[in-house]
# Entry
Amino acid sequence: MTELEIVLYLAGGLILLFVGAEGLIRGSSNLAIKMGITPLVVGLTVVAFGTSTPELVVSLKAALIGNSSISLGNVVGSNIANIALILGVAALIRPLDVHAKVIMREIPIMIGISVLLLLLLIDGELGFFDGLVFVFGIVIYTVVNVMMARKEKNSEVDTEFKEGLKSKLGIRISIILMIGGLGLLIVGANLFVQSAVAIAKMFNISDAIIGLTIVAVGTSLPELITSIVAAYKKESDIAIGNVVGSNIFNILGILGITALIIPISSVGISYIDLVVMVFTAIILFPLSRSGFSISRFEGAILLIGYFGYVYYLLPK
# Structure
């Protein structure tokens, strides 16, 4: 594979991942609304999981072709980038106000499962049982969230969601969007993983480092764009909730589903990488509690920390 082909595969794969995820989310959301499912439940399930489909498909593809280091590196690197890079950039645009519920419930859950991942990788592998624990965890997390959200139901949010989805799309078009979106995700993941592996071989970089950097940031771009737009529109809860929710799903959902299908090896992923992931999850707690907001200065600190970590990963 030539350098031009690698660049084209990487760019093409990313574009297909974004377009495919958008088609899948738009089609499934429209279909769910037409079937009578409440917008609140759709937002907590279809949309929340849909934004993480690029990570899921890329991780599955990488694991199935024998590059499970890319799968694990993708999740670990994405979780680090989501907090240090994405929230750092979002906070620089506009200080992020943090809802008390996020601080008291969602962030501790994210910290807890990050520590759990570290402990389960002591033996160097995530097996079928580990995957079962994670999948069970994401099911419980989703069910509890939906139940609690119904108690806190906000009619204005429901109305806004419905208005946002209003279109002339019928059930048939919605199904076509879902199927087409999934197809584009699969093709995009194939191109993206192939180019990532080629880059690793070309520069003699390990699959794990490629997963922790290029693949992680590439598959996190939807969250980055969402959080930047949310910060610009002064919707801080969306920016932070998007990141925290994505980190939870990355570990429980993506690694859980992948480990059920094929064991995930941690070869190439050092304890330093895992500790950095846990540390970024933990540091978000005091940052969020300081005035219940993340300031521009704190955002800058997060960014400096992220670029320092990337510099550490680069071959010396």
Notes: The chain has one domain: 3-313.
